[in-house]
């Protein structure tokens, strides 16, 4: 076993970490469309953006604008940042628009005065190159000496933020900004970076120098006098990775410490405690080694597995050790080896059944379309099997050898089993047997009422899968006093995301319509215009500060490009194709071409290469697809967004007479589909696990000489526990998420262990002692004591998750702890009554005292019809 442990453990060094939320996404039409967009449209995977939000009483003052430009200057001077930026116009904000407006006015003023120095400005405009940052800073500094004021530049006749303007500057203001006002509390500057071929939704594919550059930008912003919030994908990925490491650093040692303390109470023996801890480490080595050899990456969901296995391992250890102690105490003359053999013979079958049923519960996650949930099921199932082998073979063998050596030196190794000997714990545990003897039907009736209430609450549980679930809150103050390496870092991305999402548009909140087919049809642009009109009226659409929706499509790019280049051949053809006569610049921005669509696509791509973000032309020169993007409200639900976009997509398809195939996609839709897959996993996993465990237990009991109906009775407390835990989730307002979505299979996998131990011990003692009440007393004080010890350690182990940095881990710890408590209480308080009723009506006869001819009911204990007694 030690050699096998060493061989498997080699794989532990091969385990990689993957904290991407993209790994939870499922295969679907929306996912396929999103992958198509990333692959074929220029903006798909080439760039990522950083948002620098300036905040304050008024971010439109001269001082605030200059400070923003100076920050840009510092960013561009840092080589480590500059090398990650895109080549053309990498930084853009309101401060740049204002500075360029000032420079343009100065150039016109010089031209009107007869000067020639406006040539540089005209050449720069022709090349689409912004003036140097130094020039822009100087321009804003000269405003006080200009004939116009800052208010003129912002909200005057040609002001960049005037009411009714559709300028880019307005799109960079918070949605609470009133156009025409010279006061604003927040505005954003966009920094565009190259991703160097990396995936923007996966930290593993995100270039490390891009993340480092984003963190460096944040550091530069924090050092300035003005208040800034810096947000980007790299910042998110860094905090998710850090939260995983910090959570593990805090939770792991705390869980181990609690288990050691709990074992000290249960074992009261240093050697047994050490053996238990050695066994735990061996199980973890096997599990992580398995992950390394099979290539399973460590993710947020798998962070709960070590805690789960610590609890299960101790469960196995306590049952083996306590049964061994019981055997030695009851048979003083038996050797250590013989006592262990008898103990394993008695508890071994139950441990095998527990392992099998727990593995079935975890493997039910294989039906899930979510990859990490399948990995969780496989790894957890393997870990349970490893725990059986370690604590069913290795640790007993070590205990026999060590105890034999110690007793040869005269040391007494006989210890009393926990929960026996008339202790307070044994009296508490006996209450289940007492209730079963006096009013078993009443116990079952109350249980059914609680179960019905829990089931009603279960139907009200929400489902959640969003990036915020994996972002940590600011750690509590007490964690700051922890020594290294346990002290957590600082976390601010979640708070920043909440602020930015409520005030500005996020790329992750964009909805997309992918249009494939005959996209050069003369009615394609008309359909896109109708779709934009439809989306504008939807409640889920985000509106900019000017009250307009943020929609990008081939049509909007055409309209904007034509308005900005009124003398170009493209504009002439664009106007002609729309049938308009001598339109004004403002009217050009509203035209919709109805012919020559293919030719317009080609001319647009030549004049404005950024049009490749919304038009895809394949290598053969054919126009294969176009796309429309729309900004969405962060407050809108996934179901509302999905419904609106799919309805708009269907409208385009229906009106195109089958020539266009339209797919609604975007991160919000993909997240919603993941939520639905998660809910399906919960329901399917529950049904599959219950059916599979029922069949297994029925066959197991039947093949070992008992009635198959005992399997049903054994499973009932677990069914009750599932209902109770789902009702508790509703009461505590905890949704189904990436971790809590495993709770039904986990409840059955963990809870069935308690029921099996009680039922198996009761059935064994019933045959041994021949009396239902004696058998029940021995079961709840003997096995019940072991269950109490294992429940305490498991609850404590999972309870340490409430100290994790990640909120989802905290919720998982709370719910799993309650699951163990419910399963334990159901097994020692409710299952005894069920077993009494089963014995009376379905089990073997002759085990009740009143059933034996030579015995009669004790005085004052007239037999009750429900199998109990009237006392």
From TrEMBL:
One cellular component term from this protein's GO annotations in UniProt: plasma membrane
Annotated SUPFAM superfamilies: Multidrug efflux transporter AcrB transmembrane domain
Extent of Low complexity compositional bias: 105-114, 857-871
Subcellular location: Cell membrane
Top-rank taxon, per record: Archaea
Region (Disordered): 105-132, 851-871
Bilayer-spanning residue ranges: 248-266, 273-295, 301-321, 342-364, 376-398, 439-458, 682-701, 708-732, 738-758, 779-806, 812-838
Keywords on record: Cell membrane, Membrane, Transmembrane, Transmembrane helix
Pfam annotation, one family: MMPL
Bilayer topology term: Multi-pass membrane protein
InterPro entries per the UniProt record, alphabetical: MMPL_dom, Mycobact_MmpL, SSD
Occurrences of domain SSD (ranges): 274-401, 677-837
Main location: membrane
Protein name per the record: MMPL family transporter
Organism whose genome encodes this protein: Halovenus carboxidivorans
